[in-house]
Each structure stands twice: as C-alpha cells, then as structure tokens.
Design brief:
The protein is mainly beta. The protein has 2 helices and 8 strands. Helix content is 11%, strand content 34%.
Length: 140
Amino acid sequence: MSIVEVTRMTPTPPPTIESFYRFCAEKKLMGVRCNRCTKVTVPPRSVCSHCGASDLSWTELQGKGRLVTYTVIHLPPAQFQAIAPYAIGIVEFDEGARLPGMIKDTPFENLKIGMELQTDFETTTPQEWPRWPRYFFKQS
C-alpha cells in the first residue's frame, strides 16, 4: 500500500478542541488555516473567526512566538492550588494566531512583554481535571 493510499484512507479529524488535544498528545501544535482568507486559528474552530468561511485545513504551527500579555495566579481554583503561584500568558505565534497557556521554567521576574517563547508539551497526561495532554510555553 502506498503513502497516497494510506493518506486517502485516514480521515482528516474535524476542527474540534478534542482533535486539538489529540495532536498535543503527539507533541504537535495544530491550528486551522482558512482556505479563503488564509488566517490561522488556534485552538481550532469549525468556522473562520476572521471571515466566517468553513473551508478550513489543519496546519502545524512552529510553536514560536512573542508574549503579548501575562498574569501570575496566586489564588487559583482548587484543582490548580498545588502548583500556585504560576504564570498564564497569551503568545502570538509567527503564523499570526494567539493562544493562552501556562508559562513554565521562567522566573516571574524575567517575564517581559515581547519576549520570545516556545511551545512545549508535558510528557504525561494528568490524572486530575483537566485530563487532556497539556501544552505550555517556555523561554526560547
């Protein structure tokens, strides 16, 4: 069986949050690119948030970007109390899409708007809520 035949047999997953986290389990940061306006959205939606088109294709992001904003959480919800304090930020990727996430392995005093960050993935899926493979950001 050729690669072309395997590709035709493997259905493209729908642009859902479940598919997004399945890709994260494979250590891939995936978004969807609108085939009409070319904007990239992550996490994916079934309709382009820029032009409203539904003709979308999965695209793998490089995972590199700049910190747009951040905050340090000192009083978290119960399920995150064990890791507090922790930083959450929004990263704008080189592809133009923005994604919120936890920032790890960077002292809070070193966090600066505009700093370069890289996406990484946890090696295990947590047993507590939320039970999906987790991505996070760290200094490049």
